[in-house]
Amino acid sequence: MISQRSSISTAPACEFFTFTARAANEAAELVAQSHEAPLYIRLRAEFRAGGQLEYSIVLVDSVSDFDTKVFTQGLTVFVDETSLRYFIGTRIDYEEDTPLPRFVIEIPSASTSCGRSESFSSCPR
């Protein structure tokens, strides 16, 4: 169980998730393209209708004091405390050989699956 924190904490990525080299390069490029305000990579897991867990990777312009900051492969990634446990063991890849290039979050701990990984657009919000 993760306890409440009053400031951003840091953790090694190997405890939680990994990015493939392709995904790390794409994420770094998206962050570097930000010319207005600094952008940060955020991983989130949220429950939707029917109890289904939805995973996302987004670029945000601010972070919370309660986020965990994870350094991995040259990236700084933020994850909220609630989502952190759902990313344990995940592998994040980037598919560019599809009509819509996207990040793919592979969840090995999922007990049921529809046969495909959840995929997300790489466009910033």
UniProtKB/TrEMBL annotation:
<protein>
    <submittedName>
        <fullName>Iron-sulfur cluster assembly accessory protein</fullName>
    </submittedName>
</protein>
<dbReference type="InterPro" id="IPR035903">
    <property type="entry name" value="HesB-like_dom_sf"/>
</dbReference>
<dbReference type="GO" id="GO:0016226">
    <property type="term" value="P:iron-sulfur cluster assembly"/>
</dbReference>
<dbReference type="InterPro" id="IPR000361">
    <property type="entry name" value="ATAP_core_dom"/>
</dbReference>
<dbReference type="GO" id="GO:0051537">
    <property type="term" value="F:2 iron, 2 sulfur cluster binding"/>
</dbReference>
<dbReference type="GO" id="GO:0005737">
    <property type="term" value="C:cytoplasm"/>
</dbReference>
<dbReference type="Pfam" id="PF01521">
    <property type="entry name" value="Fe-S_biosyn"/>
</dbReference>
<feature type="domain" description="Core">
    <location>
        <begin position="17"/>
        <end position="115"/>
    </location>
</feature>
<dbReference type="InterPro" id="IPR050322">
    <property type="entry name" value="Fe-S_cluster_asmbl/transfer"/>
</dbReference>
